[in-house]
Amino acid sequence: MEEAALRDWFEKTLITPMETRSTAYRGDKTTGGIPNNAVDILEGRHLIRAEYRAGVRWYELTHDRFIEAIVASNKEWHARKRTAFRNPLTEPARNWNRLDRDDASLLRGALLEEANEWFQSNPAKVDNLERAFLKASQANELREKFSARTAQTLRVLTFGLALALIIAAAASVTALWQRDEALKALSQFDQAAKDARKAEADQYSALHSASTGTG
Question: Torsion angle, CA of 148/153/156/162, rounded to 10 degrees?
Answer without folding.
Answer: -110
